[in-house]
Structures are given as structure tokens and as C-alpha cells.
């Protein structure tokens, strides 16, 4: 409805456009119905992120809000790090189909280091924005059947200490307030007395303001809900009680928590703000939460991301630049840079080669000198050996001579001995014969 009003105003402002009256019914007054029918046909999607420490009542509140039983995994207090668990459900009410995703922070606040608690949450939200951006930037987009996982509402569960916000709460909300619609709620509000609750609410709001944390404000631009939204903005943060237990009150069964001293009725506005939260979150402002997510938080993410990549709508002289021009400029810049790098690399290569060459030359020189040295050594050894050989030859020849002389001498002595033997034999025989 709002959109159509705006576009009619827009046309009227446009110069050269004349208002005309129609002579009869044409039928474009069915445009709103067409829009409604199309939306119903497409179905809706809504994603809620629940942030709060383990056991604060996140799962119970979700079950109570949607009047169903989501599959809940009870988590321990000993998770080494925060994990985000997203679960998607298809819900039907009359002929409206809602694809609801509930994201739970498992192990939030159980770490020693605060940064370890909020960083995974920030990363999760950014990842959902990033995948939407990637889909938008594709050449072949399919945004009509894209499952939009961007977080539309973040319920931040404040523990009912009655005291003040924890520093983890402030730090986390501060990190998230430009990325998501934060709706703070005081959990387990049945554990805090009425007068304390009032003071606690005021304290929380003043702490949020003094720390510059922007929480989601219910919108006032649509007259039909401006009044109720203004009133509800004054009730923030909602003090909620969750329960799936049914207790009979009067002659009806109502969702309640039963205590020895009485019954807390979840859906009784004089007991807690549960109904206010459900009205605001689901019945009145669900579409605004979706819209704010797209037009504010996603837009901011997209702008920062594209600027980071070097895209800009205007040049430094405020002249408009098209995507094409930016692309060309970037490409040129890149090519210049590439050329520079290439030149640098080439120079470095040449330098390296030179260095290596001189090293090699040095090595060669060294090798040469070692070779020369060895050669000299070898020659010395050779001449020493030759000297030895000469001496040996001399020895050998003198030995030969001496042997020849010795043999001659031997031969002479043999012939001389032969004569003596003969003489001796003769002598012997004479002796015997004489005897
Ligand atoms: N007193 C009180 N207890 C609650 C409330 N909501 C949940 N609880 C109890 O708190 C415990 C943890 O709740 P659960 O929803 O599992 O917490 P989660 O870890 O944050 O999902 C359960 O025993 C619930 O019955 C509440 O509003 N008030
Ligand atoms: C919208 O849907 C309703 C009910 O399904 C139907 O009666 C009506 O003619 C539709 N209107 C348009 C403009 O499609
Ligand atoms: C809501 O609670 C108040 C106070 O306990 C009680 O008087 C009133 O009857 C309750 N309303 C309903 C609808 O049960
Ligand atoms: Mg849980």
C-alpha cells in the first residue's frame, strides 16, 4: 500500500505529467490485490537470530512465540566456541506460507574471552549478506527462488539480574547494531519483581543510549500502526516469560508457569510483555523488519563491500562514474601494476643471473688453481718416482754384473774341484790295493 502511494506522489511531482480523470472503470485499482495475491503465492521468509547465554530460555520462547515445538538440542555450558545453528521450518497459517529460520547461538557467553563470543555471530550475519550479494552480482541471477538467509530480527536475551547489562551484552550489541535489527528482551521476567523490573528497564535503556547502541525502533511512518508502535517503543525492552506448559485458569487452558504461590500466565499482559513482543514482532512489524534488513543493513554491507573493492558512484571531482568506467580504470591500473611487477621481476632475474655467474666463475677459478696444484704435485711425484726407477735400474744392472762375475767364479771353481776329485779317487784305490 505504502509503496503505491509513494509512486503516485512521485508521478505527480514529475514535470510535464498531467492529471486526467477516467470516464469509466479501467481496473488498475486491483494492483494492490495483484500484489497481495502474488506475495501469497510466493510465500514469505523470516529469519530470527536468538542471542543469549545457554539456559536463558531462548528455545522455550521460540516455541511459545510460534505455538509449536521446534526441535531443540539442549547444549552444555562447556562449548569450546560459539556455534550458530540455523534451522528452517515451513509454517502455514490460513493460506499464508512462512519459511521461518531460527538461528541459535550455541555456547554464547560460556567463553572466557568475550571476543570469542561475539565474533562468530558477526561472521554469521556477514556471511548471509555476502551470499546474497554474490547472488545479486551473478550474471545469471535467480533471486526469485533464492533462499534469503539474511537475519531480519535479532532477539537479544538479557539475563534478569535486575542490576545492569553485562559488558558482553553491550559489546555484542554494539558490534551488531549496524548489521541487524536488535530487539532486546529481558528473559525469564517471572524471576524479577514488578518494581525492580520497572527500574531495570530504565537502567537498560539508559545504558544502551550512553553506549551508543542503536536498537530497532518500531516504525512510525505508517499512520495505521504509528500509535501502537509509539506506545510499544516506550515499553522496550520487553520482559518476557516463555512456557509450553498448559495450566487451567478459570475454565480455560492457558500457557503458564506454575509456582507454589501462583501461576504466571504467559499471554496475560499484566503478567509480562510476551503478547506485546508477539504483536510487534509477528503481527505488526514483520514486514518492516524484512524491509529494514534489505534497505538499511544489507545496503550498508553492500556499499562497504563494493567500496572496498574500489567501486564508486562518483569520481573525486563528484562526476558520476559508471561501473564500466570503474572496471576499465581498475583494469588499466592492474595492467600497469602487472607491467611494473614484471619489470621488477626481470631486473631481479638479471641480477640473480649475474650474481650466479660471478659465483660460478669464482668456483671455476678455484677449481683451476686446485687442478694446477694437483698437476704440480703429480709432476713432482712422477719425477721422484723416475729418480727411484733410475736408481733401481742402476742397482739392477750392477747386480747383473755381479751375478755374472759370481757365476764365472763358480764355474772356474767347479772345474778345479773336478781335477782334485779324480786325484783323490786315484789315491784311495791305491791305498786299498796297497793294503
Ligand atoms: N523461570 C523461567 N524459566 C524459564 C523461562 N523460559 C525457559 N525457562 C526454563 O529455563 C530452562 C532453559 O530453557 P531453554 O529454553 O532450554 O534455554 P536455552 O538454552 O536458552 O534454549 C528450562 O528449564 C526452561 O523451562 C522463563 O521465562 N522463566
Ligand atoms: C486475488 O485472489 C483472490 C482469491 O484467491 C481472487 O478472488 C482475486 O480475483 C485475485 N485478484 C487478483 C487481482 O488476481
Ligand atoms: C490477567 O491477570 C490478572 C492479574 O493476575 C487477572 O486479574 C486477570 O483475570 C488475568 N486475565 C486473564 C484473561 O486471565
Ligand atoms: Mg536452546
From TrEMBL:
Residues 350-394 form a coiled coil. Residues 413-435 are annotated as: Disordered. GO terms for molecular function: GTP binding. It comes from Cyclopterus lumpus. Keywords: Coiled coil, GTP-binding, Nucleotide-binding. Belongs to the TRAFAC class TrmE-Era-EngA-EngB-Septin-like GTPase superfamily. Septin GTPase family. This is Septin. Residues 42-308 form the Septin-type G domain. CDD domains: CDC_Septin. PROSITE patterns: G_SEPTIN. It comes from the Eukaryota. Gene3D superfamilies: P-loop containing nucleotide triphosphate hydrolases.
Amino acid at each position: 500500500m505504502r509503496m503505491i502511494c509513494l509512486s503516485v506522489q512521485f508521478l505527480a511531482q514529475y514535470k510535464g505529467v498531467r492529471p486526467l480523470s477516467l470516464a469509466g472503470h479501467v481496473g488498475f485499482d486491483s494492483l494492490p490485490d495483484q500484489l497481495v495475491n502474488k506475495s501469497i503465492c510466493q510465500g514469505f521468509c523470516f529469519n530470527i537470530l536468538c542471542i543469549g547465554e545457554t539456559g536463558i530460555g531462548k528455545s522455550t520462547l521460540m516455541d511459545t512465540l510460534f505455538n509449536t515445538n521446534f526441535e531443540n538440542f539442549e547444549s552444555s555450558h562447556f562449548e569450546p566456541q560459539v556455534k550458530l545453528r540455523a534451522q528452517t521450518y515451513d509454517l502455514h497459517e490460513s493460506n499464508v506460507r512462512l519459511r521461518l529460520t531460527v538461528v541459535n547461538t550455541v555456547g554464547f557467553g560460556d567463553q572466557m574471552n568475550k571476543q570469542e563470543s561475539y565474533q562468530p555471530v558477526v561472521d554469521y550475519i556477514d556471511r548471509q549478506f555476502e551470499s546474497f550479494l554474490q547472488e545479486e552480482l551473478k550474471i545469471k541471477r535467480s533471486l526469485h527462488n533464492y533462499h534469503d538467509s539474511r537475519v531480519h530480527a535479532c532477539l537479544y536475551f538479557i539475563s534478569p539480574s535486575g542490576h545492569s547489562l553485562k559488558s558482553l551484552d553491550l559489546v555484542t550489541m554494539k558490534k551488531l547494531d549496524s548489521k541487524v535489527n536488535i530487539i532486546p528482551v529481558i528473559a525469564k521476567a517471572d524471576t524479577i519483581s514488578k518494581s525492580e523490573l520497572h527500574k531495570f528497564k530504565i537502567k537498560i535503556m539508559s545504558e544502551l543510549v550512553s553506549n551508543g547502541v542503536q536498537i530497532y525502533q518500531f516504525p512510525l511512518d505508517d499512520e495505521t500502526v504509528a500509535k501502537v508502535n509509539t506506545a510499544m517503543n516506550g515499553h522496550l525492552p520487553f520482559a518476557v516469560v516463555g512456557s509450553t506448559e498448559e495450566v487451567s485458569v478459570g475454565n480455560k487452558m492457558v500457557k503458564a508457569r506454575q509456582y507454589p504461590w501462583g501461576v504466571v500466565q504467559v499471554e496475560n499482559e499484566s503478567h509480562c510483555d510476551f503478547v506485546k513482543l508477539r504483536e510487534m514482532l509477528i503481527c505488526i512489524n514483520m514486514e518492516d523488519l524484512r524491509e529494514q534488513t534489505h534497505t538499511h543493513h544489507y545496503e550498508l554491507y553492500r556499499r562497504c563491500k563494493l567500496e572496498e573493492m574500489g567501486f564508486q558512484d562518483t569520481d573525486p571531482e563528484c562526476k558520476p562514474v559508471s561501473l564500466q568506467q570503474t572496471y576499465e580504470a581498475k583494469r588499466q591500473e592492474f595492467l600497469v601494476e602487472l607491467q611494473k611487477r614484471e619489470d621488477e621481476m626481470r631486473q631481479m632475474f638479471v641480477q640473480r643471473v649475474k650474481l650466479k655467474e660471478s659465483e660460478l666463475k669464482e668456483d671455476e677459478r678455484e677449481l683451476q688453481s686446485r687442478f694446477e696444484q694437483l698437476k704440480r704435485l703429480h709432476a713432482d711425484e712422477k719425477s721422484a718416482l723416475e729418480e727411484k726407477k733410475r736408481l733401481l735400474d742402476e742397482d739392477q744392472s750392477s747386480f747383473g754384473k755381479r751375478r755374472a762375475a759370481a757365476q764365472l767364479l763358480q764355474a772356474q771353481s767347479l772345474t778345479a774341484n773336478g781335477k782334485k776329485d779324480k786325484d783323490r779317487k786315484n789315491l784311495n784305490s791305491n791305498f786299498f790295493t796297497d793294503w
